[in-house]
Amino acid sequence: MKILIANKYLYPRGGDCLYTLRLMKLLTDAGHTVIPFSMHHPQNIKTDYDRYFVPYIDFREELKRFDIKSAIKVVSRSIYNAKAVELMQQVIEDHHPDIIHLNNIHHQLTPAILKWPAKYNIPVVWTLHDYILSCPDNTFLRNGKICDKCAHGNNLYAIVHRCKKGSLGASLIAVVECSFYYPKRLAKTVYKFISPSRFLADTLTKNSLPDEKVANIPNFIPPLQLPSTGDDYFLYFGRLSGEKGVDTLLEAFAKLGKGKLIIAGDGPDRQKLENKSIELNLTNASFVGYQTPESIFNLLSGCLASIVPSICWENFPYSVMEAMAAGKPVIASTTGGIPEQIEHEKNGLLFEPGNAEQLAQCMARLYHDRKLAKELGQAGHDKTITEYSPETHYQRIMKIYSEAVDKMKDSSSERRVQGHIHTA
Predict the structure, then answer these.
(1) Which CATH architecture has domain 233-387?
(2) Please, which pLDDT band fits residue 168 given cuts at 50, 70 and 90?
(3) How far is residue 169 from each of residues 107, 142, 147, 160, 331, measured CA to CA in Å?
(4) What DSSP assignment string belongs to 307-343?
(5) CB–CB of 409/416 below 8 Å?
(6) How many CA atoms lie within 13 Å of 130's alpha carbon, on the beta-carbon side?
(7) Which H, E and C letters describe 186-248, residue by residue?
(8) In CA terms, which of 12, 101, 207, 308 is 20 to 30 Å from 92?
(9) 10 Å Cβ neighbour count for 83?
(10) Number of other CB atoms surrounding residue 368 within 10 Å
(11) Other residues' Cβ atoms within 10 Å of the Cβ of residue 371
(12) Tell me: the pLDDT tens digits for 110-148?
């Protein structure tokens, strides 16, 4: 089967990118032809198909210029990327894929690329890695609290409350863009929306999509063979931004008053969080910046537990899966799809989002009971093998592909028959 896989970046940047790269390898290893479609970026993996990639644009740099021309460029490119539409047509005409699998396409690629799969009768499936179909800010957060007002279809709340970066202009742009992601309209050209978590699937079916348009297929992770080099510290790895709840982690670590904490990653709140660490006198907390996937695995091998303190509705975070696969217990907040991955006191510990006291208690429990930490870590590792293996994911995804292709063939045959009837 020829499978075109679209994602706006093609290097290990975030969970959507990790999934895309791993899926490409999984399908290639199984004998399929994989055609990537992405945006040019200096860190992208090498591919023979990059001549079809969309020209690079850095929206943050464009917006820093504070001029009308840049603002118009950002708005227009994030809604309808004409070059992406042109290149999508070209790659389809040159390679004739059997199916197209979308991942993270917003901002840089845009849903406008769906024009050509529909015209050429190519089925489309779309794995959703976030909440872009339901929330202009993509986090369901307002002033640090969960807000789902826009989930029911009225995105104007995001403008009223300036949900995007506290800015009226940014919020207006986000609402305009989100209006082009209207689920019911997209559902006309997308055979199936794939949700890694049941939580996201339920959010979609409750508010905007019929049940038959959504499939729950969890992410997968290859088996990890990591020698445990110790249990010396607590670890956070990921983006340093408000929705990730790292400030709650710092407060909890201050309450714990013992052990070590390593914070790996970068983001807009890094300086703010480092300043808070100093204010709390956390001399045993270290910010080590961005780490490669290989470095993250090394950090995981030496940690006591991995902590995921998010306050936003997470989907099905890879940070949880990677710690589980490494045989390390996860202490995580009960937000979004995380409780589907972590069962309290079975393969990790859960706490209420934003509750530093509860988090500190969970950390203290594993700090003082290393036997429990090992048992929870082993249970998490076992779960990745039984539920999140590449083989299981391959079977699930190929079932969706086959159904989509067969459905498109049946629809095309029906249209041809109707055409003959009308002609006669």
Answers:
(1) 3-Layer(aba) Sandwich (3.40)
(2) confident
(3) 16, 16, 20, 11, 37
(4) EE---S---S-HHHHHHHHTT--EEEES-TTHHHH--
(5) no
(6) 20
(7) HCCCCCEEEECCHHHHHHHHHHCCCHHHEEECCCCCCCCCCCCCCCCEEEEECCCCHHHCHHH
(8) 12
(9) 14
(10) 10
(11) 8
(12) 999 999 999 999 999 999 999 888 888 888 888 888 888
Q: What is the CA 4 to chain-centroid distance, rounded?
A: 19
Q: Whole-angstrom Cα distance, residue 313 to residue 311? A: 7
User: CA-to-CA distance for 16 and 8, rounded, in angstroms?
Assistant: 9
Q: Structure tokens of 135?
A: 């929330």
Please state, in angstroms and rounded to a whole number, the distance separating the CA atoms of residues 332 and 312: 12
Q: Which residue would you say has higher pLDDT here, 397 or 59? A: 397
Q: How far apart are CA 350 and CA 96, in angstroms?
A: 47
pLDDT on residue 97 = 98
pLDDT for residue 77 is more than 80: no
List 126's β-bridge partners, or say none.
102, 193
Indicate the pTM of the whole model: 0.91
DSSP type of residue 136: T
5-37 exposure pattern, b = at least 16 Cβ within 10 A, e = fewer: bbbbbbebbbbbbbbbbbbbebbeeeebebbbb
Sketch the domain layout of the chain as residue ranges: 2-133+181-220+390-423, 233-387
**Measured torsion, CA atoms of residues 162, 167, 169, 170, in degrees rounded to the nearest 10:** -90
Q: Please give the Cα distance from 246 to 249 (Å, whole number).
A: 5
Q: Give every CB contact of residue 241 below 8 A, 6+ residues apart in sequence.
A: 267, 268, 269
- Residue written as token pair 């093998």: 385
Beta strands at 99-102 and 2-6: parallel, antiparallel or unpaired:
parallel
- The answer to whether domain 2-133+181-220+390-423 and domain 233-387 are alike in fold is yes
> pLDDT tens digits for 190-214?
999 999 999 999 998 987 789 999 9
Q: How far is CA 348 from the centre of its chain?
A: 22
Contact 253, 279 (CB under 8 A): no
